[in-house]
């Protein structure tokens, strides 16, 4: 009787490691940080256990921990004290992300700082652009987004990560950066960003919930697959250097499609809802958090991600160190 003996290669831990196809590395992770315009402030986000709002005077303590764990990159999100209808604090040279970026780069110049480039945290209406007659105006928003990107690059951001999903946003930002002399600053585009229900805890953290309507006129329909390829192709043609797929877990098929079709680094955003569900289940003792998280992260890598933005970055780095 001829039997395929697949178990031969699973018999011992050493054999399994020899034939393992996909690996996680600390360098894969980008850690999100929420910075606020207050003093001596560290407050846990209610819907995201272990994730904090941090004031600038406490930020370097967090960055020191990030660096000590072997992480190489963070992405900064700002939560301003004041908002207006055009999100002017987003492109203020003394805005919260700009100040945080300068602080981090002065003390840790080798750490890669990614700046989230959007308006939703800064607008009084919570949308990602200029609103007129209840509708987000695409082309008027582009000017402000480019202005925001340039101000972040001036502050020292290594990578600009625009998340707004306006048509032509990569081209506008690339032109703005180039004209300002930042031709070497890459763009990590939120190229494939779905109108997902998994963003709820993030909106709690960033104080960015829309005050009316939703974002379905600019974020993608979760039912669509081919649209993702069109979006990714447009962004690459406009000058994107990285392509983000967001969310991660419910869109692993999309991630593989993007990876198979485009020769650019693929970034997965393991979003807040995915994080919070695991945290809640772990706190109730229903799952093994470490095993679930590492399995989830390896699935994202296996689907084609080169990098992963994840709130689990610090925990994952610790667990990988334990396994070395």
TrEMBL record:
The keyword Secreted does not apply. One of its GO terms (molecular function) is porphobilinogen synthase activity. CDD domains: ALAD_PBGS. The keyword Lyase applies. Pathway: Porphyrin-containing compound metabolism; protoporphyrin-IX biosynthesis; coproporphyrinogen-III from 5-aminolevulinate: step 1/4. Pfam families: ALAD (PF00490). Keywords: Heme biosynthesis, Lyase, Porphyrin biosynthesis. Its EC number is 4.2.1.24. It catalyses: 2 5-aminolevulinate = porphobilinogen + 2 H2O + H(+). It comes from the Bacteria. Coiled coil: none annotated. Homooctamer. Belongs to the ALAD family. Catalyzes an early step in the biosynthesis of tetrapyrroles. Binds two molecules of 5-aminolevulinate per subunit, each at a distinct site, and catalyzes their condensation to form porphobilinogen. This is Delta-aminolevulinic acid dehydratase.
């Amino acid at each position: 009787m001829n039997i395929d003996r697949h178990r031969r290669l699973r018999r011992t831990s050493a054999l399994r490691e020899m034939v393992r196809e996909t690996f996680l590395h600390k360098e894969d992770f980008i850690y999100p940080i929420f910075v606020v315009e207050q003093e001596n402030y560290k407050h846990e986000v209610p819907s995201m256990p272990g994730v904090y709002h941090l004031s600038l005077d406490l930020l370097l303590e967090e960055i020191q921990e990030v660096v000590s764990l072997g992480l190489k990159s963070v992405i900064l999100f700002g939560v301003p004290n004041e908002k207006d209808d055009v999100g002017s604090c987003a492109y203020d040279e003394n805005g919260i992300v700009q100040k945080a970026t300068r602080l981090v780069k002065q003390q840790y110049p080798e750490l890669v700082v990614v700046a989230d480039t959007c308006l939703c945290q800064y607008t009084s209406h919570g949308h990602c652009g200029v609103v007129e007659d209840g509708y987000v105006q695409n082309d008027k928003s582009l000017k402000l987004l480019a202005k925001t990107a340039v101000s972040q690059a001036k502050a020292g951001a290594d990578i600009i990560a625009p998340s707004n999903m306006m048509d032509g946003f990569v081209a506008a930002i690339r032109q703005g950066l180039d004209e300002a002399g930042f031709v070497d600053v890459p763009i990590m585009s939120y190229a494939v960003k779905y109108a997902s229900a998994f963003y709820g805890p993030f909106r709690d953290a960033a104080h960015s919930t829309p005050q009316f309507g939703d974002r379905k006129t600019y974020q993608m329909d979760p039912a669509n697959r081919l649209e993702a390829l069109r979006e990714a192709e447009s962004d690459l043609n406009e000058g994107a250097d990285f392509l983000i797929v967001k969310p991660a877990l419910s869109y692993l098929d999309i991630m593989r499609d993007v990876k198979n079709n485009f020769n650019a680094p693929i970034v997965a955003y393991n979003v807040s809802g995915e994080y919070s569900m695991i945290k809640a289940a772990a706190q109730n003792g229903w799952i093994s958090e470490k095993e679930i998280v590492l399995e989830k992260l390896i699935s994202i890598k296996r689907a084609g991600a080169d990098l992963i933005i994840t709130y689990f970055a610090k925990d994952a780095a610790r667990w990988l160190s334990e396994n070395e």
